[in-house]
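Students often ask what a holo structure prediction actually looks like on paper. The answer is less mysterious than it sounds. You provide the chain, you provide the ligand, and the output is a string of discrete structure tokens encoding the 3D arrangement of the protein together with flavin-adenine dinucleotide.
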Amino acid sequence: MIKYASSAITVGKTTDGHSPAHAPAEESLCPVVAHEWVNDEYKHLVVKASPKALAAQPGQFFQLLCPSPDEVEVWFRRPQSVYRVARSSERLEFLYKVVGRGTQGLATLEPGDMLGMVGPLGIGFTLEPQWKNVVVLGRGVGLATMAPISQLAGEHGVRVTAILSARSPELALAADLFENVGTVIKVLDTDGSSAVDNVERILRRLIAENKADAFFTCGSNRLLQLMKRVAREHGIPGQAAMEQIMACGLGPCYICVRTFEVNGKKEMRRVCVEGPVFDLQEVLGW
Ligand SMILES: Cc1cc2nc3c(=O)[nH]c(=O)nc-3n(C[C@H](O)[C@H](O)[C@H](O)COP(=O)(O)OP(=O)(O)OC[C@H]3O[C@@H](n4cnc5c(N)ncnc54)[C@H](O)[C@@H]3O)c2cc1C
Ligand code: FES
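The corresponding structure tokens follow.
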């Protein structure tokens, strides 16, 4: 028996339980199909999802109703980005780091258990038709968020250079997905290659080789600031996904408000509905 934090509320459904076509998100209960550790810190969760959930775009996220890992309630759902969508087999995948009580509870789910999800939520990544070669740069859980860019790129014939920053090789997540659509460069703490000046050298080389029509980043403030600076210098468009603590994930609570800079003016925006993906130059950082 799974213990949930709260009784299910119905988001995006009419009183008769149907999800109207115009509602972009819905609440659904999805059976867990597979749930495995990929290393000491991350778990890969696969659920059988509804058609609306399967419409999720790269960079969009779901609010997951995490079971309690103990006898005490877990308050609020936890946001997790979509890692992969397999529409033909109706599977939706998440790759998440087990950090606190919410994700510890999530980690207890077993195949056959039901997972309460609200989504897809937020605004995801986009690819412009003129972009043929793009650069993805991320670290930590940010790699899970950016992984589905590989799927989008594959569908549009775009080549990706993915610079995956990690403490050690086994934490350079999503390398297998990005290898299918381009080149993977792992930059690691173990050999010092994750140093910002080395990543900057790699970015500048890619620009010189005409492999950087656009930049994408998530997961590290240092790398965000680097990418933003290099992109501004060379006039390269970019997108950054923000990871911000959330409560509702739907817009009304304003917990997730951050300051952005738009046309030289400071603006407050909610990461859950106006993001989590933003124009790289408008993001001020974490
Ligand atoms: C849009 C979005 C997409 C995300 N996608 C992924 C993903 O694909 N994979 C993944 O592993 N994680 C992802 N995260 C982060 C994930 O939501 C948090 O790790 C999770 O909520 C932690 O919950 P917890 O109860 O286990 O930890 P808590 O006990 O709540 O917190 C443990 C630690 O995690 C930090 N934390 C809590 N919530 C967040 C948050 N929302 N963002 C960043 N840090 C947080 C806390 O400050 C604390 O240090 C995403 C976050 C957002 C906002
Ligand atoms: S999390 Fe409630 S408004 Fe964004």
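The helical segments are 51-54, 101-106, 141-146, 149-156, 175-179, 196-208, 221-234, 271-274.
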